[in-house]
Structure formats: C-alpha cells, structure tokens
Amino acid sequence: MVESMLNQEPAYAAAVVKHQVLILLNAIAARCLGKNPYSRFQSLEEVIMFLKQGWVS
Q: Does residue 40 contact residue 9 with C-beta atoms inside 8 Å?
C-alpha cells in the first residue's frame, strides 16, 4: 500500500482530467454542430486555439 501511494497518481486526479477533457470535447462538438454557420469554427487552427485556451484556463 505504501509503495502504491509513493509511485502512483491518485485515482481522483485522472477523473478530474477526464472530466475536463469531456467538457472541452462537448464544447467543441456543440460549436461544430451549431445552427449558425458563422458561430462554428472556421478552421482547424480555431479549434486548436480553443483547445489551448480551454486547457490552460
């Protein structure tokens, strides 16, 4: 048990990261599928910028 505490990441950290990734992917999908074509991403570069901003904040 002590060895696992010293050498493994806590399980909750993985759950938090997974939740953050799901939130970002849902936001991207919603924007890509939006009714208004002008509010959708216009290029892959915009998607990448969105990912970078979302991951940092």
A: no
